Task: inverse folding
């Protein structure tokens, strides 16, 4: 059980975010990929990813054993995968070094394990630029297979979770929000208790406050992540939102129709996802970037290709542009491109 001790100042500084971003979920998913005790929730996803990704055999995956390595506070929250990876690439060597040392100590203390990367090139990830760049490449490629296909559904669920807790925070205060956290969390003022088990962790926030972050792939033992370079930054605690098989099915089951697979083969996976996202509701380039977990520039490029192909239309609203599905785009998504042909007759 993890016990987090609050003061009145900590309560005043406690808040809840929507997400740490696609890189944060990607990091957690690598730990979940290695966990066999989450078969009911993640077994189907794990088998699909293992078939389609090099991750299970890639040596970098050892870094995520036990979820002890904190790259979350190294990078900070990031709206797109590109932004998160750039933050990781540019992270200060001493920051990365301290987090690696903390992970080694945490594994030894909680599990009695030696860090599996200790005698590999990853042990010098802080200073070895080639190793850092290889990790960035690995995370980029792995994300495309493991997280990106599900990101719009994950993001929608995380938004719903954050909205629910934020409403309680606004209407009833922070203690009511903490008391309303999901099963596994128990508020006994001034202490938040999390999880069960013989191992007990005690965390005193000391005025820093706590940032709560919903997460789809967080299923490690409860951990608070703290910045190695800023002792005044709030501690970070992730809240699992996949709590049942139905939660998992709703977020991690890929669209399996022949039409979606054909569109992915024709347009590319990301552009097929962009077309699907726009079909749900017209959206701006910025919103499309959030749904796809890409940068606005990349989102704009995908939208341009779809518009030039006649699958979406784009109209200007003030300083923003709004993308909407065309009849051809709708027909393509429904597997009936012939319906968009003006010569077609019933």
Result:
């Amino acid at each position: 059980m993890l016990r987090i001790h609050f003061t009145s100042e900590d309560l005043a500084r406690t808040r809840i975010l929507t997400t740490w971003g696609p890189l944060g979920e990607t990091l957690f998913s690598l730990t979940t990929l290695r966990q066999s005790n989450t078969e009911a929730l993640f077994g189907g996803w794990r088998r699909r990813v293992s078939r389609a990704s090099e991750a299970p055999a890639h040596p970098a995956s050892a870094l995520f054993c036990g979820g002890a390595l904190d790259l979350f506070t190294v990078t900070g929250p990031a709206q797109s995968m590109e932004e998160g990876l750039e933050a990781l690439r540019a992270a200060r060597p001493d920051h990365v070094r301290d987090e690696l040392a903390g992970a080694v100590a945490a594994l030894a203390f909680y599990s009695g394990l030696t860090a599996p990367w200790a005698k590999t090139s990853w042990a010098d990830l802080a200073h070895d630029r080639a190793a850092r760049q290889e990790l960035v490449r690995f995370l980029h490629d792995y994300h495309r297979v493991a997280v990106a296909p599900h990101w719009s559904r994950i993001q929608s669920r995380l938004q719903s979770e954050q909205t629910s807790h934020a409403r309680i925070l606004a209407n009833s205060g922070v203690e009511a929000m903490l008391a309303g956290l999901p099963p596994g969390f128990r508020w006994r003022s001034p202490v938040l208790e999390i999880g069960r088990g013989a191992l007990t962790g005690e965390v005193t926030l000391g005025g820093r406050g706590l940032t709560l972050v919903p997460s789809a792939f967080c299923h490690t033992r409860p951990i608070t992540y703290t910045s190695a370079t800023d002792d005044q930054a709030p501690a970070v605690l992730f809240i699992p939102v996949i709590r049942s098989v139905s939660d998992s099915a709703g977020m991690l089951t890929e669209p399996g129709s022949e039409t979606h697979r054909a569109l992915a083969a024709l347009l590319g996976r990301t552009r097929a996802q962009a077309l699907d996202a726009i079909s749900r509701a017209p959206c701006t380039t910025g919103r499309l970037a959030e749904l796809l977990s890409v940068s606005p520039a990349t989102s704009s490029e995908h939208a341009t290709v779809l518009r030039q192909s006649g699958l979406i239309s784009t109209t200007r609203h003030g300083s923003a542009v709004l993308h909407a599905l065309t009849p051809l785009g709708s027909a393509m998504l429904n597997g009936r491109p012939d319906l968009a042909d003006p010569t077609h007759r019933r």
About this structure: The two ends are 65 Å apart (CA to CA). DSSP finds 15 helices and eleven strands in the chain. The first helix runs from residue 8 to 12. Residues 338-346 have pLDDT under 50 and may be disordered.
